[in-house]
Every structure is written in structure tokens, then in C-alpha cells.
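ESCALATION

Customer reports they have been waiting on this structure for their group meeting. Please prioritize. Original submission:
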Amino acid sequence: MTPKPVSNKSAWVQLYEARRTGSEVKSRPPGRPPAIIPRRKIGLTLSQGETQELDAWQGRLSALMHRKVSLGETVGIMTRICSARHSRLGEKANVSTLADLVEKMIG
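Update from on-call: job pushed to the front of the queue and completed.
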């Protein structure tokens, strides 16, 4: 048996790409087909500035990828980036205020 090729992409990047891959058309029962990757719709309350930032990032990511990136993908990507930055801080991060947290995450 031949080994499967190893991908250098993060697992979450592969999940986003899996959503975009087309599959062969098959007959199926009527109704909406199940999603390849389960997603959950949520509601957010954002300020005008936060909405503008999200829109700007959505545009930047769309331009980089040469395709329309959804707002959900944009939030997902940014969340994963924050998770990676947080994991770099590790347990040594001593934060007591939001300002401390932001400084450590971006600094």
C-alpha cells in the first residue's frame, strides 16, 4: 500500500478548502443536502467600527485568494489566527486587563 501524501496545510485550512471542492452530481432525496462540514449560524452585535474592520478584512482576504471570501470564513480565519497567537503566549501570559491582553496578542 502506498502512503498518503502529507499536506503542509493546517487542518482548519483543509476544512475550508473541503467546503469549496465540488463533487460529482449524484441523485439524492429532495431537500437541502447536508453540509460536508457542519456549521452553526450565530448572531453578533458589532459596532460600526468592528463591522467596517470585518468588511475590510473580507475584502483583503478575497483579493489575496482571488475569490469571494464569505464573512463566516473571514471570522473563522481571524479566530484561528487569534488562537495561534494565544497559544504562542502560553501559560506565561500575565494579563489583568483587556489592554494587557491586546498588547500581548499584537505586540
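Sent to customer with the following note: The two ends are 48 Å apart (CA to CA).
Escalation resolved.
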